[in-house]
Amino acid sequence: MRRSTIVPAFIAVAIVCAAAGFVAGMLRAGATVDSVLVTLGLGSRAAEVDAVLGPAAVAVSAATARTEIDAPPDAGPAGILLVGDVLPLGDRDYLTDIAPLIASADYAICNLECPISSHGLRTPLKLTETGRTMHNEYFFRAPSVQARRLADAGFDAATLANNHVMDFGGEALLETLRLLDEAGVGHTGAGPDRPAARRPLLFSARGQSVAVLAYADAGTLPGIEHFAASDETAGTVFVHGDGAGSPDEASSQMLRNDIGAARKRADLVIVAFHWGTEGADDPDPLQRSLAHLAIDAGAGAVIGHHPHRLQGVEVYHGRPIAYSLGNFAFPTPWESNHFSAALELCVQDGEWTQLVFHPVRLEFRVGDPAPATGADAERIITRLTRLSEALGTTCRRTDEPLPRLCVDRRDAPETEIARSPDASGIEPHPDLEGMATVSFPAWDLEDGRKVTRARSVVVAQELAEDVLAIFREVYEDEERFPIHEVIGYDYRTVAGSQDRLSFHALGRAIDINRAENPMIQDGRKIVHPDEPPYEPGEWRPDADPYSIPAGGSVVQAFTSRGWRWGGTWTSCKDYQHFDKP
Q1: What is the pLDDT of residues 306-340, one digit of tens each?
Q2: pLDDT at residue 335 in the model
Q3: What residues contact 580, with CB distance under 8 A and at least 6 apart?
Q4: In this structure, is the dihedral angle defined by the CA atoms of residues 166, 167, 168 and 173, taken in order, positive or negative?
Q5: SS (H, E, C) 502-521
Q6: DSSP one-letter code for 118
Q7: 3-class SS at 29?
Q8: Which of 24, 235, 438, 573 could serve as a FRET partner for 567 with CA atoms 20 to 30 Å apart?
Q9: How, if at all, do strands 107-112 and 313-316 pair?
């Protein structure tokens, strides 16, 4: 690690949202050339973009980097600098004026909005049948020297889940990973395969362990073909909406699994999303739903980028969400995209204590960032204050030593949520005949405190009232059993069978807190690959608060209504499982 201290004033972090929807700009390419106009988005002009990019070697491997900070645990709060989109297309230094701010942080992370490579082919995803670039789509690629320049400016890591990292395919991504590794820049959100893309970036800041996860909203692209990582191919990792402003079930499950696993390895989990609508002032419903889901699943902070403009900050259940921090180093001729901010996330004992936004102004067209002053800083602070207050967040301005905007944890709402049984309800499932969605409040754990979380489960319509009564009883019981996850309907066969449907497929079974569940695969008891390293069949309600005790409120509520508990089975006990034949 290059640094072990932070400046006395709180450090700024710029989280910037980038997406490449409408970018065209001026680049300065090389010390002897003042500027090069790059016109993007026209398929026949793609070679003009490549002409300003330096050579790079073909990638042979990629690894997820991990950077550790060597600092004593009692050295005071850590400053984690988070910035938005960085797009260093030319062979020059974009970060000279802002480097002191970056280097002052204990750990600095940007969103790298392009591959660093001179290899690969333009992705077919953004091409028409005639080989021209689709309307409002662009191809970005930076020269190999930019990996080292990111490190030299002070960046320790980059998130790679965005709508440009695969512009030139898997070959260019693999080279990007290799160059970042060689430069000592960690990364997450893309990888040589899907497991690697989902793997968190882990680091330590002043003795506090931190995990970072990154995801791209599928809605930022015309599709995910050629971009999404698979078990065998390189790419990034996507979250999908359900068309009604919420994440779909598969994305929800992935986020709960990933964040839950990361939470077991780190004091603080930061989740980065590339999401939203370009040019929008306010977060859209999917942004808010994803952010709330991430925090409900255990994230300590959520950041976003892609809209190219600053959006406000929300404090949800005591955790901060910075929906968009605009561009950070991004060539663009649109003046509204030149006003940004660097966000410092101040952390102590694994908890955020303060957000500090340092205003940043990008140079017209070329996109070089510098600390904003005067009227520019005033414009940025006024905008952030207005948009954050609309989300219920109190901001505090300070002018020493420079104009900044702060959000203090002490001004955030309490994390303990009042009981709210009125959140309960039953709705017929729109797509599954004979099924209903049961919504209910449940207790969960947040840093050892019991807080309310909204939960829902899909079950057979005839059992919906029964299920609602069960979970209301569990919620009202003084035991306050924590429920992190509930699974009902799932079209699956009985373990070991190829064609015999399980009770889950009939909507007559419910699993609670999957972490304790053994599975049957090829006749062997195994632990689900997304769960903690429990021994198969292990049951430990004394050590694991999510493990269902035999005499507790959950078993009582189900069995008193005629449901069976898998903990009483004579073989292959399933302590999380309840069913009603």
Answers
A1: 999 999 999 998 999 999 989 999 999 888 899 99
A2: 87
A3: 463, 466, 503, 508, 509, 561, 562, 563, 564
A4: negative
A5: CCCCCCCEEEECHHHCEEEE
A6: S
A7: coil
A8: 438
A9: unpaired
Find, among 383, 366, 367, 386, the residue nearest to 375 by Cα.
383
How far, CA to CA in Å, does 271 sit from each of 61, 102, 295, 454?
Answer: 26, 20, 9, 20
Let me know whether 358 and 470 are in one domain: no
Domain boundary among 387, 411, 435: 411
Instruction: Output the pTM of the full model.
Output: 0.65
Q: Which region holds residue 326: left if phi is over 0, alpha if psi is between -120 and 50, else beta?
A: left
What was the pLDDT predicted at 10? 30
Domain housing 273: 25-411
Burial (CB < 10 A; 0-12, 13-18, 19+), residue 454, is: middle
The token duo for 324 is 């968009």
| Alpha helices in 323-410, H assignment, sequence order | 374-389
Residue type at position 234: A
CA separation for the pair 562, 581 (Å, rounded): 9
Residue 450, pLDDT score = 78
The pLDDT of residue 175: 98
> Same domain for 245 and 391?
yes
Domain end point (choices 411, 445, 478): 411
Residues in the chain: 581
Nearest-angstrom CA–CA distance, 354 and 335:
30
Residues 300 and 355 in one domain: yes
Return d(Cα 200, Cα 405) in angstroms, integer: 29
Tokens of residue 91, six digits: 């062979």
270 neighbors 294 (Cβ within 8 angstroms): no
Mean pLDDT by 10 residues, the chain (581 residues): 35 33 34 28 30 26 33 71 97 96 97 97 96 95 98 98 98 98 98 97 96 98 97 97 91 91 92 96 94 92 96 94 95 90 96 96 95 95 94 91 92 53 72 88 78 85 95 89 87 60 87 61 50 51 76 94 89 82 88
For 156, residues 6+ apart whose C-beta sits below 8 A from its C-beta are: 1, 2, 67, 107, 108, 109, 184, 185, 186, 203
Instruction: Flag whether 335 is in a domain.
Output: yes
pLDDT value, residue 25: 35
Residue 224 is predicted with a pLDDT of 97
The H-or-E segment that residue 130 falls in is none
Which DSSP symbol is given to 134? P
Are 165 and 194 in contact by the 8 Å Cβ rule? The answer is no
**47 near 38, Cβ under 8 Å?**
no
Q: What is the CATH number of the domain that holds 270?
A: 3.60.21.10
State how far the Cα of 519 lies from the Cα of 186, in Å rounded to an integer: 34
DSSP string, 217-284: EGGGSS--TTTB--SSS-EE-EE-B-SSSSB-HHHHHHHHHHHHHHHTT-SEEEEEEE-S-TT-SS--
